Amino acid sequence: MTSTRPSRQGDTFSSRHVGAITGDRGRMLGTLGADSLTRLIELAAPADILDPVDAASLPAATDEAGVRRELTALAARNHPGRPLIGRGYHGTVTPAVIRRNVLENPSWYTAYTPYQPEISQGRLEALINFQQMVEDLTALDVANSSLLDEATAAAEAMLLARRASRAKSRRFLIGDAVLDQVRAVLAGRAEALDIELVEADLTDPRSWGPQVEQGCFGVLADYPDGHGRIWHPGDLFEAVHAAKGICVAECDILALALLTPPGEMGADVAVGSTQRFGVPLGFGGPHAGYMAVRKGLERQLPGRLVGASRDADGIPAYRLALQTREQHIRRDRATSNICTAQVLLAVMAGMYAVWHGPRGIRRIATRVHAQTVRLAEGLRAAGFPIGVEPFFDTLRIRVPGGARNLWEAARTAGFTLDLIDDDTLGISLDETVTDEEVADLVGLCGSAHDPAPAVTGADAGWEWPTALIRTSDYLTHPVFNSFGSETAMMRYLKRLADRDFGLDRGMIPLGSCTMKLNAAIEMEPISWPAFADLHPYAPASDAEGSLAMIADLETWLAQLTGYDTVSLQPNAGSQGEYAGLLAIRGYHHSRGEDGRRVCLVPSSAHGTNAASAALAGMRVVVVASDEAGNIDLADLAAKIATHSDELAAIMITYPSTHGVYETQVRRVCRMVHDAGGQVYIDGANLNALVGVARPGEIGGDVSHLNLHKTFAIPHGGGGPGVGPLAAKAHLAPFMPGSPVGTRVDHPLAGGGTVEHSGHPVAAATFGSAGVLPISWAYIRLMGLDGLREATGQAVLNANYVARRLGSRIPVLYTGANGLVAHECILDLRPLTHDTGITVDDVAKRLIDYGFHAPTMSFPVSGTLMVEPTESEDLSELDRFCEAMLAIVDEAGKVAAGDWPADDNPLVNAPHPAARLLDDEWHHPYSRREAAYPGMVASATRDAEAGLHVNPVTRIQAKYWPPVGRIDNAYGDRHLVCSCPPPEAFEEH
Question: GO terms for biological process (predicted)?
Answer without folding.
Answer: glycine decarboxylation via glycine cleavage system
